[in-house]
Amino acid sequence: MAYNLLKGKRGIITGALDENSIAWKVALKAHEEGASFVLTNAPIAMRMGEINKLAAQTNSKIIPADATSVEDIEKLYTESMAHLGGKIDFVLHSIGMSVNIRKNVPYTELNYDYYNKGIDVSALSLHKLLAVAHKLDALNEWGSVVALSYIAAQRTYPFYTDMADIKAMLESIARTFGYHYGMQKKVRINTISQSPTRTTAGGGIKGFNEFYDFANLQSPLGNASADDCANYCISLFSDLTRMVTMQNLLHDGGYSSTGVSQEQLNRLGSPS
Ligand SMILES: NC(=O)c1ccc[n+]([C@@H]2O[C@H](COP(=O)([O-])OP(=O)(O)OC[C@H]3O[C@@H](n4cnc5c(N)ncnc54)[C@H](O)[C@@H]3O)[C@@H](O)[C@H]2O)c1
């Protein structure tokens, strides 16, 4: 059911790789809620061609941009504003990649070239998206920027290796830039800390399926789906959350506040 929550708003949505991507669901819902937006992803991700389907479905333009390149991001904002007919109201940062995770490198033996690459792609890219927007004055007052994070930024999950540090940095950038952009232009910046979700990025993590089940049993409401995450993003892009900024918002079915669930104990053989 749509509520026209984003009617008249202009946006940029990064990270829609295929129909499992969280960003894909956000784009579908933003379209339902009346927004017009540009889709963007790394040029290499375009080769799969999946994004064309989403663009057709949501009547949106695709502008390729490598989120590590300031030049690409400048072009992204300039062309998006020209195409959409004005400044931008919302931006979704839905970008994550760790070569160390992909190659199964243990945390105690991280490859620092891979580590730097992960930082650049997954955390600095948020700073770059914000800094370029700030320089070009590309965002409207009360605009909203959301980036996606994971609870490993606060607590240790061995399989998440360098992405834990990188997500901590991402959340810090959201807070710190949120202060400056809020003071100067009333732009708000938040991170959503999302449950494990079956996507290309999520599924690439060793032991993901077991951990997905663990989190599902631990959360009173179960794991939050990509669709649920998209709904939360839409609420943050809307005017209903105007005073929310500089927050890391846990979207996890209650996982983060649960010490242990009875279901987990039952699995270990403890009677309820
Ligand atoms: N899936 C999960 O379990 C989970 C949980 C919490 C947070 N997140 C976060 O959600 C976000 C979206 O991931 P997803 O799970 O939808 O997976 P996904 O693989 O569908 O999306 C990741 C996207 O990042 C893009 N990307 C990679 N390098 C890029 C670059 N240089 N420039 C521009 N784009 C680039 C990819 O092309 C892809 O579209 C990520 O930040 C991820 O860490 C995921």
Helix-strand layout with pairing:
Elements: E1 10-14, H1 22-32, E2 36-40, H2 43-46, H3 50-58, E3 61-62, H4 70-84, E4 88-93, H5 99-102, H6 112-136, E5 139-149, H7 161-185, E6 188-194, H8 200-203, H9 208-218, H10 226-237, E7 248-251, H11 262-267
Parallel strand pairs: 1-2, 1-4, 2-3, 4-5, 5-6, 6-7
Keywords:
272 residues; alpha/beta; Rossmann fold; 7-stranded parallel β-sheet; 11 helices; 7 strands; 15% strand; globular; binds nicotinamide-adenine-dinucleotide
Description:
By secondary structure, the protein is of the alpha/beta class. It has a single domain (10-266), classed as NAD(P)-binding Rossmann-like Domain (Rossmann fold), CATH 3.40.50.720. It has 11 helices and 7 strands. Helix 1 packs across helix 10 and helix 6 (112-136) runs parallel beside helix 7 (161-185). The model has no long low-confidence stretch (mean pLDDT 96). Nicotinamide-adenine-dinucleotide (NAD) is lined by residues 14-15, 17, 21-23, 41-42, 45, 66-68, 94-97, 121, 148-150, 194, 196-197, 199-202.
Concise structural overview:
The protein has 272 residues and is α/β, with parallel strands linked by helices.
* Assembly state: single chain
Radius of gyration: 18 Å
Element order: H for helix, E for strand: EHEHHEHEHHEHEHHHEH
- Tell me the distance between the termini: 39 Å
